[in-house]
From TrEMBL:
<dbReference type="InterPro" id="IPR052895">
    <property type="entry name" value="HetReg/Transcr_Mod"/>
</dbReference>
<dbReference type="Pfam" id="PF06985">
    <property type="entry name" value="HET"/>
</dbReference>
<protein>
    <submittedName>
        <fullName>Heterokaryon incompatibility protein-domain-containing protein</fullName>
    </submittedName>
</protein>
<dbReference type="InterPro" id="IPR010730">
    <property type="entry name" value="HET"/>
</dbReference>
<feature type="domain" description="Heterokaryon incompatibility">
    <location>
        <begin position="7"/>
        <end position="177"/>
    </location>
</feature>
Length: 320
């Protein structure tokens, strides 16, 4: 069997679905969204520098390019493989979107903290270095930045608030992408830092994080809270996941259910009948299939309600 080509998967905010830009890929032109175009431009610059140093090409997996979004059958098949895609990626790039002058200042500071810790302790001891001495190292980094910039602490504090307030942290697909990643970096503008360093930022800047944003930070690779957040690698219950993330956002309402299937145990071999990703059925049928699965009954036993929506189903989930 041919060995799998090493690749990096990308987690990003979709934004508008309008295909406004064009890229050259696979010998032909392909129309893409503005967010994908911006993402590829940023990553190309960073990866181009790494490829030159390493003398080889690097490969990216981007869902909007690798999955035909206009083909519901293909999309249904490919989305069922998302867990595998992110779990087998060499690394996942968590792209938070375009930079501002303040987010650049924040990310540069975190990058310098990361470099300082590696120089002092060695790359293999980065976690220990951050845990024991990140406060002092962070003060040194901020002091150096303060020689070039005014109001460094305030600007970095506000920048972290702004980044954590971005819609990327609200996306339901991000939950699976973060949970299944073996390794990852957080990317914004021209800066990228390890998840371990980014997760330390709220404590360093005295920023309170709660709700889904905290769950995502806790589940990032190398985060101190990852073991608890991901239940120690055990299979998760679909009802519990739907309950935990019932307010998460999705462009397609059906994804508020489908995006969580890759985090749960088998949805087929449990005697309840299959629960599979299927974009060829309407929203009401997705709700009906999900209720049948959760209740352990046949779909035929449930009346069909054409007005049923995923939003109303998740709102009423505690009463199920």
């Amino acid at each position: 069997r041919r060995p799998m080509m090493p690749y990096e998967a990308v987690s990003y905010l979709w934004g508008s679905a309008e295909l406004r830009e064009t890229i050259w890929i696979g010998g032909r032109w392909l129309r893409v969204t503005a967010s994908v175009f911006e993402l590829l431009g940023r990553l190309r610059a960073a990866q181009g520098r790494r490829s030159q140093r390493r003398g080889r090409h690097e490969y990216l997996w981007v869902d909007a390019i690798c999955i035909n979004q206009a083909d519901d059958v293909e999309k249904s098949q490919q989305v069922q493989q998302m867990r595998h895609v992110y779990a087998t990626a060499r690394r996942v790039i968590f792209h938070l979107g375009p930079p501002t002058s303040d987010t650049d200042l924040l990310m540069e500071g975190l990058w310098r903290l990361q470099m300082s810790s590696r120089e002092k302790q060695g790359a293999g001891s980065l976690e220990h270095s951050l845990a024991e001495e990140d406060g002092e190292a962070w003060r040194r980094v901020r002091s150096r930045l303060g020689r070039r910039h005014a109001n460094v602490w305030v600007r970095q504090h506000n920048a972290l608030h702004e980044l954590l307030g971005r819609s990327w942290f609200e996306r339901v697909w991000v939950v699976q992408e973060v949970w299944n990643a073996r390794d990852g970096i957080v990317h914004c503008g021209r800066w990228a830092v390890s998840c371990r360093v980014f997760v330390a930022a709220p404590e360093l800047l005295n920023v309170h994080v709660a709700g889904q944003r905290k769950q995502i930070l806790d589940a990032m690779p190398s985060s101190p809270g990852r073991l608890a957040a991901t239940t120690g690698g055990q299979e998760r219950d679909l009802y519990a996941m739907l309950q935990s993330f019932r307010n998460a956002a999705a462009t397609n309402e059906r994804d508020r259910i489908y995006a969580l299937l890759g985090l749960c145990g088998s949805t087929e071999d449990n005697g309840r009948g299959p629960l599979l990703t299927d974009y060829t059925v309407d929203e009401a049928e997705v709700v009906r299939n999900t209720i049948a699965y959760l209740c352990g009954c046949s779909v035929a036993c449930l009346p069909r309600d054409p007005s049923a929506t995923v939003r109303s189903f998740l709102s009423n989930l505690p009463t199920l």
